[in-house]
Structures
1.
Amino acid sequence: MSEFSSPEEIAERLAISPKTVREWLRAGELVGIKVGKSWRIHDLDLARLLDEQLFNARLARAQKIHPDLEWTRGQCRECGMLMPEPRKFHNPHWVCSAKCRDAYDDKAAAITGRGTEEFADCAGTVVPPY
Ligand SMILES: [Zn+2]
């Protein structure tokens, strides 16, 4: 049962006001169910909202760093996190963070005997905006 939280529990976890959580629910940004007069939110739906907000922040940063590129929705090749990707310069080794880059590098080295450093050609000149 612990996978469902009240707006108050979520507010405490994120150090925000319960009013903000209820506004997300009313606006349909956060999916929840109403039990009597109170809302219950599944952990996965909260995670989805936070992932989406993080994606939007990363998209804004990517557009600021490379305003010349058209950005699209992509995913980290290591953890699957939503991640803006440039439409034209497809990078098959796109990752969301330095941590994922290191983990991806280790796997690549284990499989191919070389790190992703050597894939620099296909990575092109655009680097992920972390
Ligand atoms: Zn990742």
2.
Amino acid sequence: MLPDIMAAALNEQIKVEAESSQIYLAMASWAEVKGFEGIAAFMFKQSDEERLHMLKLLKYVNQRGGYAVVSALDEPRLDYSSFSVLFRQLYEHEVKVSASINNLVDIALTHKDYATHNFLQWYVSEQIEEEAQAKVILDKIDLIGDSKGGLYMFDNDMKNFTSQGHNIVQ
Ligand SMILES: [Fe+2]
Ligand SMILES: [Fe+2]
């Protein structure tokens, strides 16, 4: 049985992951309309991944005798004034998510919920990946600046970019 405080915190995280999915989806739609196919494809894929993060939590809460709540989501508020600004927000968002995962680990340990602690390890490693990936993309974008040719190539690279392989830095 999940401690109540743990169930509540995991439910909060369900919302965080669902909102992450919406954020990536909003960026995907923006990139698609702007004609950046590669960036859009990457964002759509990320959006799906965040939904899977959400589902995994939802199923875990229910499996442990809790009740996973599907709540209303905040609308993504994003500044699209430049790619650099946009990808910085993405990076900062992932850093924030890492902090909330760390907080969940903290609650699990404080309440001796070792099953949840074990479950959360997947999210800990996943966040290392996600933060690193967001940072690689941000560094790349900062390097390119407003160069049209650079952005064109960047968009092409993004088609091959996956969360596993950081082939964009090669
Ligand atoms: Fe996530
Ligand atoms: Fe993420």
